[in-house]
Specification:
Layout: H1 2-30, H2 32-40, H3 46-67, H4 73-95, H5 115-144
Helix pairs in contact: 1-3, 1-5, 2-3, 3-4, 4-5
Membrane topology: Multi-pass membrane protein
Protein name: Methylamine utilisation protein MauE domain-containing protein
Subcellular location: Membrane
């Protein structure tokens, strides 16, 4: 029973992360001009903003793709943890008043959330990512024994 629950949680975690990254990347790429405009309103330099315009949706698509295949899933989980942690830290900095401008350049339904709700959403996905990664690593150790 424990193995089946663990397997189900693992599969659901991977699926939720694939959906998260694929939809947010698709939203940004589907309206690249709007994403570019929103990024330009951020506090970042123009050069860094130009880099983010490509790097953010590309990273999200890469993470989703890596998660889709069992041989690359560990890398997808690591990429997911790095991405969700970076986005969560940014939101925490926004809520702490670190930035004087705080437009949201998020994709999908996330752009309709307030900052506090977005932080909660990200914390939930951080937990999902960590749980899924831990299950993955435990399975790797078990399979090597």
């Amino acid at each position: 029973m424990q193995l089946n629950l663990s397997k189900s949680v693992y599969q659901l975690g991977c699926l939720l992360l694939i959906i998260l990254w694929a939809t947010t990347a698709a939203s940004k790429l589907g309206n690249l001009n709007q994403f570019k405009t929103e990024l330009a309103k951020q506090v970042f330099s123009e050069r860094f903003t130009a880099w983010l315009l490509i790097a953010v949706p590309a990273s999200e698509m890469i993470a989703a793709t890596l998660l889709a295949f069992s041989k690359t899933r560990l890398y997808g989980l690591i990429a997911s943890l790095l991405l969700i942690t970076a986005f969560t830290l940014y939101i925490a900095m926004v809520l702490a008043g670190y930035f004087n401008k705080v437009p949201c350049s998020c994709g999908g339904v996330l752009k309709w959330l307030g900052w506090k709700a977005h932080l909660v959403f990200n914390l939930v996905f951080t937990a999902i990512t960590l749980i899924t990664l831990i299950i993955h690593l435990k399975r790797e150790v078990r399979d090597k024994e």
